[in-house]
Amino acid sequence: MAGSSTSYYFVIIGTKDNPLYEAEFGTFKQGGDGVPKFREEQRHMNQFIAHSSLDCIEDLQWASKEMYLKAVDKFNNTWVSCFLTGGNIKLLLVHDARSDEPIRQFFTDVYDMYCKTLMNPFYEVNMAIRSQIFKAAAKKYL
Amino acid sequence: MAVPLDLPPRSLSAMGTSKASPMYNLRSSVVSTGSTTSLASLFAGTGASLPRDIVDDIKSVIHHAFVPHIAVHVSQDVNEIIREKGLPDLYQLIRPYGEKVQGRITARDSQGSSMPFEDFAVRGRTAPGAGTGAGQWDGGSAEAMNSEELPLVDELLDLHLSHAEELIETSLAAETEHHTGQAFYLLYLRKLLSGFPVTPHETFAHPVACLIAISSRNLAPIDTLRQLYKTGAEMDIPGYVNKEYLRYYVLVHDEDNDDIQKSTALFEQMKRHFGLHCHLLRLRSSLCIVSDEDSVPLAKSEWLPASEELAELRSRQDDEIEGESTSRFIHGSDESAIKTMIREMVAQSVIPFMERNIASWNDQILSRRKGLGGRMLSFSRRFLSSTATRSTTNSATASNFDLTTNSYDPITPEAQMRKLADWAFMLRDWKLAYDVYNTIRSDFNNDKAWLHVAGAQEMTIISLLLTGQAITPKLRADTIDVYLDAACYSYVTRFRAFYAALRCLLVTVELLRLAGGSSAELAAKWAIRSLDLNVQPTVGKALISQRVGDCYAVRQGAGSGGWGGRRRKAAMWHILAAEMWIRLGKFAQARHCIDVATPRYSGTEFVFIRRFLEQLNLDSGHVDLLDLGSLKLSGEKEAQNGGGESLVDLADGDGDVQQQQREREKEREKGEDGEKPRFDRKRRSILIPQTVNGDAPGMMTMTMDESFDDRPL
Amino acid sequence: MSSASRARLGEEVWKTRTDKINAELVTLTYGSVVAQLCKDLDGDYAEVNKQLDKMGYNIGLRLIEDFLAKSNMQQKCANFRDTADVISKVGFKMFLNITPTIANWNSDGKQFSLLFDENPLADFVELPDDGKAQAELWYSNMLCGVIRGALEMVQMQVDAHFVSDLLRGHDTTEMKITLVRYIDDELPQDDE
């Protein structure tokens, strides 16, 4: 993962394996500028990895009472962390180092914003989200 | 060694266009022998999700990988006769027939009940120091398990695959399904398991018996036999190989030249001198050609090590250039004589010999241990060895382990128990083998004989899986995962024995996959681990990646939604494999993988996934109009929705793709100029070459639904 | 009654005499009404605005009684400025717990604007991304109808409409209210 270290791929996945919202960003920690440093071939791999981790999440979701399932899957050196909402919407973060706590905070903020998005009368479940609001949460914790 | 060339004639012209094409019969190399063993029932309940014949194929490969090895040590005059027949030596002649012993062979297990095998096999190997195979015997160190076989296996598979590509390209598409399924993986596995190196930590490659042969032309037959016995024993065999193997004496009678009565008399004399393990093999010395009345093609060995098969293919290629036919035939009478000899040797000598030894080792060593304390009490081995083996080791240390050679002397209890376990395993008494492996593991551990520990861990798991015992989650977590991890660590980190690690992983993976359910997921996990070994070059990696997908695919999940299945993972690995196949230029394999995976992604809204799949389809020449149509539709939808802020940049999509497609088509145009239109069953489409006036696109496609009669062909 | 005492009155009524309901429920209910209208009328936002206004009018006709009963206002408003003050500090305070700013009086004192710093009805809302709603839909248009209906019951015919909306990306949410005439001793029109 050299060259793409401390970059994140964040995706919200709806109930039909459909991405609702996607973002790539780099770390803001240690003077990072938040710009993702994914190589081109990593970008589709991120999507494959996130998509395939849904298999594991379907198993885990009945075993855990928590919404935050922590790191659920691993592909080579890439981790997938998951936050599962009550409405079976999955917040997934593809990242390259385990750090459960900041990711939990990030997810909690994002979840809060997702709830607000859902309150928009013109938004329907499983509809793509075009708002940029989630980046702020990334800036705060990752 | 020569193999008849029986390619269908129409493929020959295509062969001519590609100089690199290996000339051999792919079909016979790839098709694995079906087998119905008495152990089929083991897998009956567990492998339900896999078709029966596939289960049998995999089991057959694993069974046939671990078979008794029989060294062949012959006098010069025997090989003279064989050479007159047009073959290099007796070893090459009989080896293929050892791979399938005729008829049913029965062995008794440790409980005394008899187990019939329909597909028993033995592996021939040259005697130590006797020419070609000599290299195989000077292993002895761990490096032997990092053998050069791995790259060779890859190279060989690469040839096979290239050949299959050509068959498909030249409209022999009917076989596509067969070739692109798991056949190549099985071939890969078989080749990997074909050349066990001789090592101290396991005895599978140590000879169980030695076939010593003279011919009726020999002037001093009994002396020669004694001489052969002597040279065989004095050969430069590593010290850890037990030389107490069975000697089987064969008199080769030349039917065409010599007097059978004289030979019979000599044979009687042999029996008086050497006991019952004798056989009179009546062979004709004349060259057999295809037009002879009773000619049969010489059977081909499926278990040739990759190095030998490669060498053979290369020499055949040279022969082809000279226009010389390389087909080999032998007389039908010879074939049946050899089959009979092998059957007798195995059924009447080798198996009883193994049974006797197993029983006696079992009595002497294992039961003594069990009698003293039982395994559960885990008596210190040092205590046992001080009573049992002090006299033999004669050494100041209490351990029998020789650190300098990293081995045990064959007469130590440790070495004998390992042999006991291996032999029980070869006779498919998995339960006994499992018990013994389980026991000696701790002994080896006490001696810090890490290579032996790893070997015992490996075989503990394999024999456990073969017993057909239900694999509980506890068993998976506490035994299989732990031992596999430890064995791989030892093999790779301590000894850099990548071959051993790879074998260990891939055999386990197959057995776990057969068990199905969550074991199949474990199989995928360890198959991925084997990719991490990073030793096998590209073809192997692609095959294993594809296999990871296959492993995940076995886990189907419950209900209509496939809940708990691993469909998405399977699809991802098939796509990864497809990408590798394209990089390797193996487009048929790639198309197969794409076909398997595509339904999972149809209509996906992941932009990069969709774009990547489109690219794969283009690169592999995969044409499925339905798929492209749906992709295109969703692409348009995306464009319409693209008004707002989209995080993932889509702007540079379509132009590139179309440009590349046009370039590809141009390349195709050049390549396919002058070829006939052909129907590709797999792709359900017709490829139409350039039209006469040249202004039509190089490749047009249409589905079966359209009437292609209207088109200018 | 001074402007400050009206503010106190509004506060008191909100605190002691109003049954509270979960704000999200109101927001969602109102949002669903609007979204459903948009769907049913197939994106004809002018018609949506009209329907919202009509619903508001019908609410206003009834709500004025509740307002008068709870606020217990004895004193009649002296002028239209007083009316504006009551609407903002008592009316909006009591029903939505907000106090829109009064601004932009015209010279003859018959027209003013209500500036909404916050609007509970529009919480969480983002207008549809269809290129039309941003220009045509007045999301909170029901409020106009409510004011129109309520004032009509107290003998004032007004025209109320939004001129800007934060949801459309404007800087403020502004409703313009114009007094058309005082209705002397006339019966109100029938419910529309």
From TrEMBL, chain A:
Q: Give a GO biological-process term.
A: endoplasmic reticulum to Golgi vesicle-mediated transport
| Family matches, as Pfam families | Sedlin_N
Highest taxon listed in the record's lineage? Eukaryota
The family database entries (SUPFAM superfamilies) matched by this protein are listed as: SNARE-like
Query: What does UniProt give as GO cellular component?
Result: cytoplasm
Signal sequence segment:
none
Record-linked PANTHER family: TRAFFICKING PROTEIN PARTICLE COMPLEX SUBUNIT 2
The identity of this protein, by name, is Trafficking protein particle complex subunit 2
The species this protein belongs to is: Drechslerella stenobrocha 248
From TrEMBL, chain B:
Biased composition regions of type Basic and acidic residues, renumbered to the chain: 661-678
| Disordered as annotated region, ranges | 637-713
Which Gene Ontology cellular component annotation is one that this UniProt entry carries?
TRAPPIII protein complex
Highest taxon above the source species: Eukaryota
Spell out the InterPro entries in the cross-references: TRAPP_III_complex_Trs85
Q: Which Pfam families match?
A: TRAPPC-Trs85
PANTHER family per UniProt = TRAFFICKING PROTEIN PARTICLE COMPLEX SUBUNIT 8, TRANSPORT PROTEIN TRAPP
Q: What is this protein called?
A: Uncharacterized protein
Q: Name the source organism.
A: Drechslerella stenobrocha 248
TrEMBL record, chain C:
Q: Which InterPro entries match?
A: Bet3, NO_sig/Golgi_transp_ligand-bd, TRAPP_component
GO terms for biological process, alphabetical: Golgi vesicle transport; macroautophagy
Gene Ontology CC terms, in alphabetical order: endoplasmic reticulum; Golgi apparatus; TRAPP complex
Pfam families recorded for this chain? TRAPP
Gene3D superfamilies with a match to the protein in the record? Trafficking protein particle complex subunit 3
Family indicated by similarity: Belongs to the TRAPP small subunits family. BET3 subfamily.
**Entry protein name:** Trafficking protein particle complex subunit BET3
